[in-house]
UniProtKB/TrEMBL annotation:
SUPFAM superfamilies: HD-domain/PDEase-like
PANTHER family: CYCLIC DI-GMP PHOSPHODIESTERASE PA4108 (PTHR43155:SF2), CYCLIC DI-GMP PHOSPHODIESTERASE PA4108-RELATED (PTHR43155)
CDD domains listed in its UniProt record: HDc
Domain of life: Bacteria
Protein name as annotated: Cyclic di-GMP phosphodiesterase
HD-GYP domain span: 140-336
Phylogenetic classification of the source organism: Bacteria, Pseudomonadati, Pseudomonadota, Betaproteobacteria, Neisseriales
């Protein structure tokens, strides 16, 4: 059985099933292993990990610990209670209407970040006049329908991950800031910070940045230098403001003091840096890498909600979930009727009742005539169904974008 235990209960002889943190936050070669020494326990604690999941069939048990199913059920209920009472962001264009522009922006922003990183490697300064127009384009797309660009950005080529991750973080920061009501200038600067937050990775050797496996401790130390390197690089940029510098330097800080580079705690971390930390981890753990299978967005939100006990600001995590939705646009979901559909739009006041385009029957294993269901409406009025869970598109051979 898989159980969640407090770090105080960890003992030699236990089998770690999941270190319960984002993969960028721990220095272990493997996610799953038998604990064989006190040094390994100390390393887990030093990584800022407060709870882990153990496999009791492969190692020692803790009788009073909760099972993973009990933990997930509790988290799901807490998430629902935390986010369903607040409105979702307003959209002005449908997903289909915004999709063409969003696709162009994705490609242009990807090329821009790649150029910026290449320039930095050559010792050139970052030129804001190249980047700022792209921030405005992303903002206009997000204001029209944030789901279009965010859905496209979840699709990343493993070789171009670093560049598209930066575009994703910039876009998510813009959407997040907009959803909590920040002013347009702050939104712009936060988006700029997001798209430039990993500038310091331009100085990380490719063989470390794209290594197809866990990093050694020495390599991990090199990676951990990128916030400071990025800050130093951007500090030489004419006209750069405090907000993008702060996001670049502090997006790996954690509210319990376990982050880097300064081990800041609580309110010594700015609100925008706390927001960037959430956004950065969300995009990282939902992306496929050569050594890491990305989580479904709904699962990633649940993990971030779980980690908010220690690593993230709980109120900001709840605000982020309201921003993207418990079932983000583009998510494939199974309905109580047995139909499969893709989320195309959030409801303005209840994130559990989005609009779904159904197109497949899980019971007959056949495609259906596509139909839009508004889960906020009763049976006979375009609704009358309920989400059971999200589904992996590859399990059914369905490309959600085809139906959006």
């Amino acid at each position: 059985m898989i159980k969640c235990i407090d770090i105080a209960d960890v003992k030699i002889g236990m089998y770690v099933h999941d270190l319960n943190c984002d993969w960028t936050s721990h220095p272990f070669f493997r996610k799953r292993f038998q604990i064989k020494s006190d040094d390994e326990i100390a390393k887990i604690i030093e990584a800022g990990i407060h709870e882990i999941y153990i496999d009791t069939e492969k190692g020692l048990d803790v009788s009073h610990a909760r099972s993973v199913d009990e933990v997930n059920a509790s988290l799901q209920q807490q998430m629902i209670e935390a986010v369903t009472s607040k409105p979702a962001p307003v959209i002005t264009l449908s997903f289909a209407e915004e999709l063409g522009r969003a696709n162009r922006i994705k490609n242009q922003a990807h090329a821009l970040v790649k150029t910026v990183m290449q320039d930095v490697r050559l010792g050139r300064v970052v030129e804001l006049e190249q980047v700022e127009p792209m921030i405005e384009s992303i903002t206009e797309s997000v204001l029209s329908n944030s789901g279009a660009l965010l859905t496209l950005l979840r699709i990343k080529n493993k070789d171009d991950y670093t560049f598209l991750h930066s575009v994703s973080v910039g876009t998510l920061m813009i959407a997040f800031c907009r959803s909590v009501g920040l002013d347009r200038e702050t939104i712009h600067l936060a988006g700029l910070g997001g798209i430039l937050h990993d500038t310091g990775k331009a100085l990380v050797p490719d063989e470390i940045l794209n290594k197809p496996g866990r990093l050694t401790e020495e390599e991990f130390d090199i990676i951990r230098r990128h916030p400071r390197d990025g800050f130093d690089i951007l500090s030489r940029t004419e006209g750069i403001s405090e907000i993008p510098l702060d996001i670049t330097l502090h997006h790996h800080e954690r509210i319990d003091g376990s982050g880097y580079p300064h081990n800041l705690k609580g309110d010594t971390i700015s609100t925008l840096a706390k927001m960037a930390a959430i956004v950065d981890v969300y995009d990282a753990i939902t992306a496929d890498r050569c050594y890491h299978k990305g989580m479904a967005p709904t699962d990633a939100l649940r993990k971030i909600f779980e980690w908010s006990k220690y690593h993230f600001d709980p109120k900001l995590v709840q605000a982020f979930m309201r921003c993207v939705g418990i079932y983000p646009v583009g998510t494939l979901v199974l309905l109580e009727s047995g139909k499969l559909g893709v989320v195309i739009e959030q409801h303005d006041s209840n994130l559990l009742t989005p609009k779904i385009k159904v197109m497949f029957s899980s019971r007959s294993n056949t495609y259906l005539q596509p139909e839009i269901i508004d889960l906020s409406r009763p049976l006979g009025f375009g609704g009358g169904d309920r989400i059971v869970r999200h589904e992996a598109p590859e399990k059914w051979g369905i490309n959600p974008l085809r139906f959006m």
